[in-house]
Structure formats: structure tokens, C-alpha cells
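This part of the workshop introduces the protein records we will be handling. Getting from the letters to the C-alpha cells is the skill we practise here. The record below serves as our worked example for the rest of this section.

…
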Amino acid sequence: MRFVFLAATAAAIVSATPSLAAEPVPAAPASAAPVTDPARIAAARQTVDYVFPLGTYARLMNGTLDKMMDSIMDSTMKLPLKQLAGLSGVNTEKLGEASMEEIMQIYDPAFKQRMQISTRTMMNEMIPLMTQVEPDIREGLTQAYAGRYTTAQLGELNAFFATPTGKAYAADSYLVMMAPEVMAKMQGFVPKLMEQMPAIAEKVKAASATLPAPRAYADLSKSEKARLAKLLGVSEAQLEKEEKAKAE
């Protein structure tokens, strides 16, 4: 049950916050050659200093994501368990319309607080890790901006970002998608996602219908079983025993 809730929440986060995974500008072809013009790179680096300064991930994760997660959790907890269970392929015909919140009040009255603590702890631990990769992200963004805008265009952007209004906008451009005002409107996304998931699952099933079915352990050759055991770091005998237990 907790897994279903986490899966639904994760899906909602990814879909509700495209700014986390998206480039700030349309993606260039994967084969695009890196920009080497020093003037253009310098202008792009200045742009990145405005829109993604060091410490952006800390600002993003230290408070902003907590509030977003709380908002998504509140919406998800109010959904009927029938909708959530449908995500994992469970037959929901006999399930009632009780919400996740009602169910968890019986199983775990402290569930909401437990999830909040888990989220905040995870975010706090991720901040140092994300901060470590910021220089690489900034370098990638520099190439992205340099590849999409000319030196003159970057100069115009930087001139705007140097103004009080531009500086204020640039500083929050990566955070504004998770502003409380935006997230309040995104509350309705989770119920819509849950409603559409069965239809989406059926489309996925239909789209992959021509693919061969996954093989069972019994279908593998002796050499494949040996290779699988090696990849999993267990003996062939142990793997055989575990797979036999699963089959039974």
C-alpha cells in the first residue's frame, strides 16, 4: 500500500514540475557539436550565473520541495483507495470508495507525519549530493544556452538580467514552477492522473502486444542461468533454489 502511494506521488511530482527535468530552452539535437567560441561561451556562462547560481539546488530542496510534497500528499491521501490500487494491476471491483487517508488512519495514525519526516530527511540528505553536481549542471547549461542563442542574444538577456527586475526574475526562474500559487492549481492533477491510469495501462499493453513475452527462469539455457547467477552475485545452486521457491 505504501509502495502504491509513493509511486503515485512520484508520478505526480515528475509531471507537475517539468522545470526539474527540463532544459530552460528547447533541446538541441544530441549530435550538436559543443560550442567553442570564447565570446559566446563567456556570455552564456554569465547568463547561467544569473539563472542558475551556485546554491540553486539547496534553495530548491530546502523548503520548496517539502511544501510541494506536502501538497501532493494531501491530494493523494484523499483519493479513493480503489484508484490507487488500480495502479498496481489489482482487481478493484470489490473495493469500496474509502480514501487512502481513511484507511491509513486505522493502519498507521501517524502515516502523514511519518511521510513528512521521511521526505524532509531525504531532501536534507540530497542537498549536499545535488550541490556537488551543480558545477557540472552549470557547465551543461552554459553549453545549452550557447548552442541556442547567439552572442548578441545572450548579451541582450544579460543586460536585462543585470537590471533589478531582471535580476529578481532570473534568481527565481527555476523555482517559480513550485510556487504555492502554482502548486495550488496543480492539486487537481493527481486525481486526473489516477482516473486516466487504467486507460493508459491498456494503451501500453496494446502498444507492446507484438513483443515476445518475458521469459521465465525455466526458459533459460544452462549458460544463461550461469551468467544470471554471476550478474546477481549468487551461486547457481542458490539461484536455482530461490527460483524454485518462487515458482512454487
Notes: The chain has 13 helices and no strands. Confidence is low (pLDDT under 50) at residues 1-31. The longest helix spans residues 111-148.
